[in-house]
Specification:
The complex is a heterodimer of chains A (275) and B (307). Chain A is built from 13 helices and no strands. Chain A has helices spanning 2-32, 36-41, 53-60, 63-95, 101-110, 120-130, 136-159, 164-172, 177-188, 190-206, 209-214, 223-226, 239-274. Chain A starts with a helix and ends with a helix. Chain B is mostly helical and 307 residues long. Chain B has 13 helices and 2 strands. Chain B has a two-stranded antiparallel ribbon. Classes of the chains: A mainly alpha (275), B mainly alpha (307). Chains A and B meet through helix 1, helix 4, helix 5, helix 6 and helix 7 of A and helix 1, helix 3, helix 4, helix 5 and helix 7 of B.
């Protein structure tokens, strides 16, 4: 008897925690399909009628399309660069017999400790001089730079499991270091690539700080920043459109997360525990 | 550990990444330090002023406000993330069914953009229309506590800290859970046989065993909170007045709203020094403890041999 009531309490606590954690997200989806009047009068009640007016309004003004495209561009180019640069650097640091690799590795991993805010002022000035503020490139450079420490670390970790005998044998057979990389080492690291790609696609898609600093023109804005547009002048917020826009913008990360859940959490926790 | 002896190939593979990293991470650090000794408003010549920016910083009242606000922010965020994360991870270890589902859902806030998080919390805190928090207060009959949480200087700091704490609790839960389930059950099964209660096992065996993970998460939490920016900046941008000003929001404002790039850089350098110091101190604190323990074990072993 006592055990049973304990079990019920336990279940309720779990449910309660879960509710706190995901209620705001559910509420967001509900709010986005509420008619404006209802949203103002009873923002937290269940919707009495469902409307997609908010979505139509957001989609029809066309801005969100531009923002999504910009986010997609920044995210995909950054990902390609992150994978390309960290897999090669990781290969160099783990499989080559050259002096100083240890120090170089430490140098790379040191970047994990650096707060990204330090880059804002110098990069803003630098971009201003080069005339590349308000371009996607201005966001890609710091995104990739700050992703490198962790992703290099993850590749070095993975490559340390690739047996040296395998590579030695390839060297004996006259295989060049380039072929070893492209035909043996890189294809083997598929899981590491998926982890890094899934984790950083979400992080970069969501970035606010670089976008907000380097981008001011509407044509180059990314989704995360564009959301701020729905807060009008004098703080008048069009809540219906805001929520619809938020829902549209968080769909891609949610999709990636629910399909690659295992890899995303693995990457984030690795990112976390290596800090 | 390496096997390939080809210097040219080594550089071909290493240099692109290394150069990118230096340009994106180290060039800004060097520039920030250099700029922190300059006076510059964005146009015209930079003027070398020595330590003037740092002296001004230590005389600046807002700097101290931001610093102490940051400490409170840090306290709230760390306590929320570590205690709730750990508590929930422990509860999860007693769950038998649907653990993956709960874990997956619990993690969702971590993958939502901060802009969305702030909009959600902004409407929860609001009074016009009545937000969720104030509605709940009314329902439970605490009308006197209904207030515009973000506009009240006494509550605004806590109000901007809670969303940040909430957001990453799921991540810490996943880390703690992974650490707890990877423990070898034989370690505490013996204690169970000897009649130890669940709570004793938890506090005397399981939690001490994941000490390393606790240190790591504490480091992450602390450095993360020292850099705290997005949510406070979006919710209040430091206001009203400077009531919710943090180091990084103050730095951002000085640089990009008042165009004091030199002074902003001095603040940025302060944040970086703070972060590195925290990591260093925590590491020192915990390794010295480990060493002490290692010595203790050694002593016990020597004793055992003598007997």
């Amino acid at each position: 008897m006592k055990k049973k009531s304990l079990k019920i309490i336990f279940g309720l606590v779990i449910l309660g925690f879960l509710l706190i954690q995901i209620y705001p997200v559910i509420w967001l989806f509900l709010a986005s399909v509420k008619p404006t009047v209802e949203l103002a009068s009873a923002p937290f009640a269940l919707p009495k009628s469902i409307t997609f007016d908010n979505f139509i309004k957001v989609l029809s003004d066309g801005k969100i399309g531009t923002y999504m495209w910009n986010s997609l561009k920044v995210t995909s180019i950054s990902l390609i660069l992150i994978i390309a640069l960290s897999s090669t650097a990781g290969y160099a640091l783990s499989k080559f017999k050259v002096r100083g690799t240890k120090n170089l590795y430490t140098f790379f991993t040191f970047g994990i400790m650096i707060p990204v805010q330090i880059t804002l002022i110098p990069l803003f000035i630098f971009y201003g001089k080069m005339g590349i503020l308000n371009t996607s490139f201005s966001m890609i450079l710091p995104q990739v730079g700050f992703a490198l420490p962790l992703s290099v670390m993850m590749f070095v970790n993975f490559y340390s499991f690739v047996p040296n005998e395998l590579i030695e044998a390839a060297v004996m057979d006259g295989c060049s270091p380039y072929r070893i990389f492209f035909q043996i080492v890189f294809p083997l690291s598929r899981n590491t690539i998926i982890t890094i790609a899934s984790m950083y696609s979400i992080l970069i898609w969501n970035d606010f700080i670089f976008a907000n600093t380097f981008i001011s023109e509407s044509s180059a804005k990314t989704v995360a920043m564009g959301l701020k547009d729905y807060v009008g002048a004098f703080g008048n917020v069009d809540w219906g459109s805001t929520f619809a826009a938020i829902v549209i913008s968080i769909l891609p990360p949610l999709l990636i997360y629910f399909s690659l859940n295992k890899w995303v959490t693995a990457g984030m926790t690795a990112g976390a525990t290596k800090g | 550990m390496g096997v390939i002896r080809n210097k040219k190939a080594f550089f071909v593979f290493l240099l692109p990444g290394l150069l990118f990293y230096i340009l994106a991470v180290f060039y800004p650090i060097e520039e920030s330090i250099r700029l922190s000794f300059m006076k510059w408003g964005g146009i015209g010549e930079k003027e070398f002023v020595g330590f003037a920016n740092y002296i001004a910083m230590f005389k600046d009242k807002v700097f101290y406000t931001a610093f102490f606000n940051n400490l409170i922010y840090l306290l709230i965020v760390v306590i929320m993330q570590l205690s709730i994360g750990l508590l929930f991870a422990i509860l999860l270890t007693y769950m038998t069914k649907r653990v993956t589902l709960v874990k997956t859902l619990y993690y969702v806030p971590c993958i939502i953009t901060t802009v969305a998080v702030t909009q959600m919390f902004r409407s929860m805190y609001s009074t016009e229309p009545m937000g969720l928090l104030n509605q709940i207060l009314q329902i439970v009959g605490m009308d006197q506590f209904v207030k515009p949480w973000l506009a009240d200087i006494h509550t605004v700091l806590a109000a901007v800290s809670v969303p940040e704490g909430w957001r990453f609790t799921g991540m810490y839960m996943v880390i703690f859970y992974a650490a707890l389930v990877s423990l070898d059950p034989s370690v505490y099964e013996a204690a169970k046989v000897d009649g130890a209660t669940e709570l004793q096992i938890l506090f005397k065996i399981k939690i001490p065993l994941i000490k390393d993970i606790l240190l790591l998460t504490l480091t992450m939490c602390l450095t993360g909170a020292l850099r705290g920016f997005d949510i406070p900046f979006l919710l209040t941008s430091g206001g009203p007045g400077n009531a919710s000003e943090l180091m990084s929001t103050y730095m951002y404002k000085k640089a990009f709203s008042s165009n004091q790039y030199g002074y902003g850089s001095a603040l940025a350098v302060f944040i970086i020094v703070e972060s590195i110091l925290v990591v260093f101190v925590l590491r020192k604190l915990f390794t010295s403890k480990d060493e002490a323990e290692a010595r203790k074990i050694e002593r016990l072993q020597r004793k055992g041999r003598k007997n």
